[in-house]
């Protein structure tokens, strides 16, 4: 789900990174960073370089993040969508949380088999004269090949951990992750092919119009200006030629009880 | 569709398999979820609309600025001329457009070309208002190293920068004060045409100054062929800028690549202008010298006479210095006649205007005030005179280096009460924190007065602005004030058509026109009649163009 409460999101983010939450009230969040997060967010490599050289532990900084814009008296960083700090945190998440392998938390006294699922979260970017993105979360059972969309929404109702629960055991995949990934891509490509892509037609039409204008402009020009025209043609294609970029947000293997 | 290019992530699955083999490291469930949520939050779900607004909650955009950004992105596909009148926030619109493209992930590599004096201001505004990490180009940078660089065209077009820049594929190019590259025969123009670019904004308050071919040249940077080719355009529309209002078709074409907001149609008038003419009298001694100078001038080139008289209306110092220079040049005739006058000037008491400034400052109280004068000598004198009366001031000139300009502006903001600027220093400094202006002497071109006022009456000004225009009775200044300013009713309301009108009369020569009237007249009466005629012409064009605008909408 998209982030709706920034304050909660930030608290969870720092907790997940094992930073102590000093206080959190009225939209003012105070955090004691640990070394790892200080290095990641505070941009002071020299400090850490010299502290380590001297064989010391160093003092990670504290952060006060204010999500309540009406708190004008308190000293700290105002944080909101688009602020450099939040951008930095989102980038940190994007760069570092790409891969996972998780086990469903199961409370049981009986031997329980966990099925491996390949989960891939993807972003489709439609780029033409206008652009938009679409996000897909797809899961593929690596035993029986069953495929599920809106996988993250489904997973969010369960709990997962890094270690396997007691009495549980995993089944070795029959389908290799790479084959599973290819199946997912086939579905995505099918989905793309099934659309009518009016946006792309519009873009191509606009491109064609612009190319005609350009050619008219250079109609009577001497040969040496052709280079300029070619450059402008390339610029036009770059701007209008429709393109779909399929990128993976993150993904991994999830071991789950048979549904 | 076969014509759509596909781009696939090819690294993900291999990297995942590698991690599985090496048994990690893996993300915990909480962070994995958060990374997904973060992506959901930042994706662009719609083809239309501005996402940047959610990202900039601290900014209060004006409706016309948001509309402009939308129009440029959705309808003009990122190539446009932003031609708002001075002070309506072209920078803000451009920043919003750039931010939107960056959020949508369509722009990484950016080049921003602005006048050298504005480089720091652009960097500051982009960083502070838009969180766009722009940097000013410095000598030891390489052009491909930084993604968002701000520089001047003089730097950019010089070797080896030129070659390095032309090698780069820019996602976004912005050119401020684009009217300076309107001539297609210049190196600047050729350079800009040669840039490799995806999106491009040209910013100018005066897209057409003299000839219609100027708009053709600007449009050809954005969309070559949009207005046909050079020959066909010249043939069809000639060089006459008036044709743009006559030809509805041409006008529509231009509107497809140009946005122009005027004060009249926007809500900027919230901060009102209070403009007051302050009439002054010279002391009898001053009038005596003034009249003596006026009378005794028959043998010299009349050009000097006008200049000397104008200077005397500004300060003893300004006049004294140039008279002295005139006398020292042995080739000049009539030096012996001037010598006694120079001596008399040396004896004069403090200038009536300077005294009035101090008087006015007492009324204004603690507020910041900007004073404009035409002469450096007057600037220095005023600074000294104000200091004598315990009023702190800093000077500002066009010739100052970039750093010094920024420093002076900061000093004015934090320490001094008054900023004394000469004309050339006016362009590009934004002083919204100040809302009092004294025009110590009036420029002879109403457009330049508008530019001065635009320094404080612009986007971001929250208070009403107070403008005081000084004029000395029974001097040249009275003619200028009465006939040039009051008659054209410039002060009643901001006149949106002013730049159009002046362009029609050829803006560059406007001041010379007034000078030549002054020079070519043998009596005060004659000056009056001629200026009267000029004012009448302006008035009639203004009425006509307002009529046209009602017919066709503003271009």
From TrEMBL, chain A:
Q: Which InterPro entries match?
A: YqhG
Q: Which organism is it from?
A: Ornithinibacillus bavariensis
Protein name as annotated: Uncharacterized protein
Q: Which domain of life is it from?
A: Bacteria
From TrEMBL, chain B:
Query: Where does the Helicase C-terminal domain lie?
Result: 356-502
Matches recorded under SUPFAM superfamilies = P-loop containing nucleoside triphosphate hydrolases (SSF52540)
Which InterPro entries does the entry link to? DEXDc_RapA, Helicase_ATP-bd, Helicase_C-like, P-loop_NTPase, SNF2-like_sf, SNF2/RAD54-like_C, SNF2_N
Keywords from the UniProt entry: ATP-binding, Helicase, Hydrolase, Nucleotide-binding
Ion transport keyword on record: no
Q: Which residues form the Helicase ATP-binding domain?
A: 71-225
The cross-references to Gene3D superfamilies, in alphabetical order and at most eight, read: P-loop containing nucleotide triphosphate hydrolases, Tandem AAA-ATPase domain
Q: State the Gene Ontology terms under molecular function.
A: ATP binding; helicase activity; hydrolase activity
Q: What is this protein called?
A: Helicase
The organism encoding this protein is: Ornithinibacillus bavariensis
UniProt lineage: Bacteria, Bacillati, Bacillota, Bacilli, Bacillales
């Amino acid at each position: 789900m998209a982030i709706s409460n920034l304050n909660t999101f930030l608290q969870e983010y720092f907790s997940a990174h094992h930073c102590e939450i000093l206080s959190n009230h009225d939209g003012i969040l105070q955090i004691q960073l640990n070394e790892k997060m200080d290095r990641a967010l505070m941009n002071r490599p020299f400090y850490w370089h010299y502290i380590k050289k001297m064989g010391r532990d160093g003092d990670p900084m504290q952060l006060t993040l204010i999500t309540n814009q009406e708190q004008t008296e308190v000293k700290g960083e105002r944080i909101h969508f688009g602020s450099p700090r939040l951008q930095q945190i989102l980038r940190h998440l994007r760069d570092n949380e790409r891969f996972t392998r998780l086990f469903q938390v199961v409370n049981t006294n009986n031997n329980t088999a966990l099925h491996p699922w390949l989960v891939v979260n993807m972003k489709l970017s439609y780029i033409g004269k206008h652009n938009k993105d679409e996000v897909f979360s797809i899961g593929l059972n690596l035993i029986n090949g069953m495929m599920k969309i809106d996988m993250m929404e489904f997973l969010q109702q369960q709990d997962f951990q890094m270690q396997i629960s007691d009495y549980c055991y995993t089944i070795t995949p029959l389908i290799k992750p790479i084959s599973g990934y290819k199946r997912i891509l086939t579905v995505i490509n099918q989905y793309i092919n099934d659309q009518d892509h009016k946006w792309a037609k519009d873009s191509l039409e606009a491109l064609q119009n612009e190319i005609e204008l350009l050619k008219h402009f250079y109609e009577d020009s001497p040969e040496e200006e052709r280079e300029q025209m070619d450059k402008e043609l390339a610029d036009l294609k770059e701007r209008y030629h429709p393109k779909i970029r399929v990128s993976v947000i993150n993904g991994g293997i999830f071991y789950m009880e048979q549904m | 569709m076969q014509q759509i290019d596909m781009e696939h992530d090819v690294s993900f699955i291999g990297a995942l398999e590698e991690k599985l083999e090496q048994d990690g490291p893996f993300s915990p469930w909480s962070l994995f979820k958060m990374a997904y949520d973060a992506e959901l939050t930042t994706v662009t779900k719609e083809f239309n609309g501005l996402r940047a607004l959610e990202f900039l909650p601290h900014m209060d955009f004006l409706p016309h600025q948001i509309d402009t950004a939308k129009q440029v992105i959705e309808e003009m596909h990122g190539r446009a001329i932003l031609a708002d009148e001075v002070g309506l926030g072209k920078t803000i619109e451009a920043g919003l457009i750039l931010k939107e493209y960056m959020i949508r992930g369509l722009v990484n590599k950016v080049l921003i070309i602005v006048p050298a004096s504005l480089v720091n201001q652009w960097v500051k505004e982009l960083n502070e208002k838009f969180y766009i990490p722009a940097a000013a180009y410095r000598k030891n940078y390489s052009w491909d190293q930084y993604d968002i660089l701000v520089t001047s065209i003089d730097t950019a077009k010089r070797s080896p920068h030129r070659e390095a820049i032309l090698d780069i594929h820019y996602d976004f190019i912005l050119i401020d004060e684009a009217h300076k590259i309107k001539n297609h025969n210049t190196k600047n123009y050729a350079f800009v045409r040669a840039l490799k670019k995806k999106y491009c904004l040209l910013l100018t308050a005066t897209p057409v100054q003299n000839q219609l071919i100027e708009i053709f040249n600007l449009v050809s940077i954005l969309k070559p062929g949009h207005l046909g080719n050079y020959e066909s355009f010249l043939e069809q529309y000639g060089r006459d800028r008036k044709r743009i209002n006559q030809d509805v078709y041409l006008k529509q074409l231009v509107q497809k690549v140009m946005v122009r907001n005027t004060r009249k149609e926007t809500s900027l008038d919230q901060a009102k202008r209070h403009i007051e003419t302050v009439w002054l009298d010279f002391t009898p001694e001053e009038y005596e010298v003034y009249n003596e100078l006026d009378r005794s001038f028959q043998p010299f080139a009349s050009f000097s006479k006008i200049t000397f008289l104008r200077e005397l209306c500004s300060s003893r110092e300004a006049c004294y210095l140039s008279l002295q220079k005139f006398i020292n040049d042995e080739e000049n005739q009539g030096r012996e006649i001037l010598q006694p006058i120079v001596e008399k000037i040396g004896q004069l008491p403090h200038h009536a205007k300077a005294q009035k400034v101090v008087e006015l400052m007492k009324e204004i109280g603690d507020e910041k005030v900007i004073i404009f004068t035409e002469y450096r000598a007057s600037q220095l004198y005023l600074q000294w005179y104000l200091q004598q009366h315990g009023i702190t001031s800093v000077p500002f000139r066009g010739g100052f280096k970039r750093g010094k300009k920024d420093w002076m502006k900061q000093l004015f903001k934090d320490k001094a009460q008054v900023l004394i600027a000469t004309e050339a220093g006016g362009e590009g400094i934004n002083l919204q924190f100040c809302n009092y202006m004294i025009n110590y002497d009036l420029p002879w071109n109403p457009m330049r007065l508008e530019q001065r006022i635009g320094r404080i009456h612009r986007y971001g000004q929250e208070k009403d602005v107070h403008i005081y225009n000084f004029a000395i009775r029974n001097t040249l200044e009275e003619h200028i004030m009465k006939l040039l300013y009051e008659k054209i009713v410039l002060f009643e309301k901001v006149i949106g058509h002013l730049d159009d009108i002046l362009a029609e009369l050829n803006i560059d020569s406007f001041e010379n026109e007034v000078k030549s009237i002054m020079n070519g007249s043998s009596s005060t009466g004659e000056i009056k009649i001629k200026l009267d005629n000029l004012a009448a012409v302006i008035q009639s064009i203004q009425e006509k163009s307002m009529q046209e605008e009602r017919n066709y909408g503003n271009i």
